[in-house]
Give the backbone structure.
Amino acid sequence: MTSPTTTTDNSPATTLGFPVAEHPAPLDELLGDPFASDNPTGYEAALAADDRGEPFAAGEVVLDRAGLGAEYVPAGLGGRLTGVDTLVRRLRPVFRLDAGLGLGHGLTTLMAALNVWTAGDTAQRARVARLLLDGRRLSVAYHELEHGNDLTGNHLRADPAPQGFTLHGLKRVINNTDRAAGAVVFARTTPWASRPTGRDHSLILLADLTALPDDTFRRLPRLRTSGLAGCRLGGFEFDGCPVPADALLGGLGEGSSVALRSFQVSRCVTAGAGTALLEAALFGVHRFATERVLYGRPVSALPHARSLLAGAFADLQVAGALARAAARALHLHPAAAGRYAATAKYLVPRLVEDALTDLAVLLGARSYLREGEYAFVGKHLRDIAGLSIGHAGGVSCQLTVLPELPGLRLTGPPADPALFDDSPTPPLDPAALRLRGSREDPLLTVLAHALDDADPHPGLAPLATGLRAELDAVRAESAALPPAARGVAADHRALALTERYAWLLAAAACVGTATRTGPTGGTPDPRWLRAVLERIGRRSGRLPEPRDTAPLDALYGELEHRVATGVSLDIDPEPVARRPA
Amino acid sequence: MNPADTADTVATPADTVATPADTVATPAAAAEELERRLGPADPADARARDLADEREEFPRADVDALDGIGLARHYVPVEHGGLLRDFPATAAMIRAVAGRDLTMAIAHGKTFLGAVSVWVAGGVEQAARVAELVSAGVPVSWGLTERGHGSDLVAGEVTAYPDGDRVRLDGEKWLINNATRGGLVTVLARSDPAGGPRGFDLYLVDRRTAGDAYRPLPKVRTLGIRGADISGFTLDGVLLDPEADRVGAPGSGLETVMRSLQLTRTLCATLSLGAADHGLAEAAHFATGRRLYGRPLLDLPAASRTLGECYADHLLHEAFATLATRAIHTLPGELGVLAPAVKYLVPVGTESLLARLRRLLGARAWLRDVRGTEVRAGVGVFQKIERDHRIVSLFDGNTVVNLNSLVSQFPLLSRAHRRPRLPEAGLAQAADLTAPLPPADTSRLRLMPTRGASLLHELPDSADRLAELATEQNELAPVAASTRLLADRARELLGDIGEQPIVPPDVPAHAFDLARRLTWALAGAAAVRLWLDSHAHVSRGGLGPEPLWADGCWLHAALDRVHTRLVAGHRPTAEEEHALERTYAVLTGELLRQTGDHRFPSLLHIRRAEAL
Amino acid sequence: MNTSESTATPAHVDEVVDWLIERVAEYREIPAADVDPDVPLAELGLDSVYVLSLCGDVEDHYGLVVEPTVAWDHPTVDALAKHLHAELTGGAS
């Protein structure tokens, strides 16, 4: 281990110029050093619970005591939810430890509650806020086995009845069905028609599941999964279950339009939380590489190992930059935020999975073990697959983005520089989120302007030609797509455009980060931008493995420095409780 | 050391070997024979396997079933009284088992890995002793790796030092398959305190005589193959006969292991092929039953294409693994290049294939109790396939080890390719699936393939042959062009490899990328040769699906998959894309036909028990 | 917010009907005469993706930012035209 060149005590920034948050995330302190074997909320205990297929009880106790439920409740309703990226930062320590804990304890509750914050009336909002502040859970019931992510095909019916509705049908693969206090259910409220109209479904808020008559409502047996094994996925069965009229969330037929706006928020939270799995694994595998001796020297001294670690660090930076920009766009550029959310939810888990796979190569056989100090890396690799399936799989995110690509315009102003830092954001206004993203693309415009710059940023300059060509090609090829090729009938090349667009957005988020200025910004070293843009080129299959290792070497130096000084490896670093071996 | 020991290991010429009556002729026939004997796969068994996996139970019934049909005899060479004459036949049988359940294949097939060093370097009497035990169903284990050193075998700390007229073994081996169940264990141990390439011996430890001096370690808990007996053992003064129990000459332990690994690394690919057979069948089952957005999943062009590309990857893997397995017989001197390339590419390629299928299946790929619309405990097998399969890229030489092995051969490879060479008869033999194989002669395995890789050497000629065929048969034009492009790119790659200075162990990261690309070039070249040298025979004999072989269809797709990995930024022109679309449509259709007819997803016709 | 270069304000709702019929015909690659303005867009084969494209065209042509929900709530060419015309002319249709 090399000794740090600077210390956080005197210096607010890392070697590459990233400002370090003053305080650790509160949950990081409460959960403690995950490697400490006597820590009841460390990796060993989390893995043991996962192994038994049980929720991580000790972890849930800590989260309950910390009142995590309040993080999901808007400040106006008595909670602590102000900014989506702030929420992600607060959740990161949980996801570093155990994604199953994060999802099972509460993230799915947030997914349900978002519909209430978006469309609920005053009484509904107050009731659900109370529930969450009391530490209770909600299930979010969209999924039906036969329809997957195709919401328009959902069958569960809410038929009109004198008292309100009666529910008929099944929901499966729903988190926490056996212990949720309430649920938000996506239900068909029009007769089945072969052509979906967009107004076929409504959202039903079941605030108290125990109040439903036993003979018409059943919680279905648990379904086991191979990842997120501590999550209790089950289902609901309704057989003529009566619900009152005031259970309707939003207007009749507004189910899709409300859910599609809620998704924009939950996609950003999931993507951001997903980066924490990579952050934790990267720290762990780096620690392993410094301990492990092969061919007479630490693995971390082998150029190939350093390159894998630095590459995964670059991946984390890219993923973090994109996830943060998407989350902050919900506040700062809501008209385009749906496109960014879908893009982040598509690309970030993929990138995290690819990087975890690389790290597993370095860990070797230990990546396959459910025991030992590094078993959590293999678990994270299993769990990320579950996070990326979630309620919005990759392809459904791509199909959200694709129809918007042909008409994109880069003529408006570039994104607010605040998209790339952690300054306070204006409150989230769900009504400002749109089902169809704006033609203007403020984030991509950041990249276009940087490429147009006569004196380009030194980190961008060596890669500018390739990025410009790719940007032009994606726009031209998208513009040429006939409407029939923009939907489910899209071929693989059309669908690939959404992936290429995602890489461009990631590049734009990195450029924005590297060129930010301002009170809370901190301008990173140009080598950082060069390294992450080269990484984007390589991961997207556009560029070969770079011969010049200097940019990645600089990143490796940053990685070692952060590890040595107890600072997280995120795009917005913060002090962490864990210590190098 | 009796020098005759080594000479005795040279395989007896085939014409003097009495071939047992039930030795099966072709790999397809071998796999079908195994399928017939095991009978149709019982869905109840598959569900029970998942639940047993959760409980971490050894797959006793499965292994008993394989013992019951005498599969282990196919791990024993015919010259030692077994049924292993052609490696491709045994490989095909293991593939069929892996296609049912990978844990079962690994739990049973491990015996082959444990015993192989004895076939490679053991004396006649020793081999006869081991052959008898293996044939009787005694599990054999291979004790190579240690807790602190993993793949760095030269750092091994288990010792074998003289103790009177005996040799005494001490130390610990870890992450060893069958370490607890194994009746016989081959152990790599340091015989010279100074170590070094001649400082290790390989010993046979018989558990019956070792007694308490051999202590199994607790079972290691793994992500997949949870039922398998993965553990380790400590040796505390195990006393052995320094001559009778040593495998090969003194100081030859590492060399024997390296040569044995050439065989086992090649054969490991068959585990990946089996896992992909299984995964593709599950994906086809899902895709044919699924409706999304009001239409069948397969009507969504991107979904259909994904399935076609995954199948193309699988066929490429099959072609490469098949050619390399045949090369054990016909081109043993080049196995030093082929084995690490196959061991890297096929498992890693299969991991990415399974990951793509997982994304296609969505939540189904991840649920243990759901398959299609069926909800039942243990019915969701896809997650187990992917989880189990991850072990394949990790054991018997992981990704880093295999790529490193190729990097160390860079100077030889580039030098060999600057010299003119006559066509290699052994390559033509390996590439013609209908050519009879000479007996395998493991004494011809070379640690360093001084003659390079004839696959790459002859690739420009192959491109010429295809170009010529394309002048008569216009449909071959896209394949011929793609082959030419491959030859050009392989030549450039060899040029880059020649310029790469190597300073072990400080291999620059860039060299690993060159090695990775080299494996894809080799796989592409293998596919080209296999098609060129086999297509006429396969078509004439009706040995494989004609739509795949006609017009070089499968090769066209396989090369497309190679090109996307071989160079960054590969993007077909609109015209090429048009041709590829037709090709992938044929492939997707053929995959559905094969899985629907209970055949293996394969270049050849191989029926499962259900179709026999 | 998003106003495009060519923002036409239609004098009469029929102009919007004609313009929408042209779009539908173009998307579905059918003669304009085959587009019945009283038939739901879904039945004309315009699924949600076409609706998104149509909203984009409305924005480009009329400078009016609309959500796909307009087509859910006004599901025929006629209904949609009335709604768009009202929006463009400040309610006087």
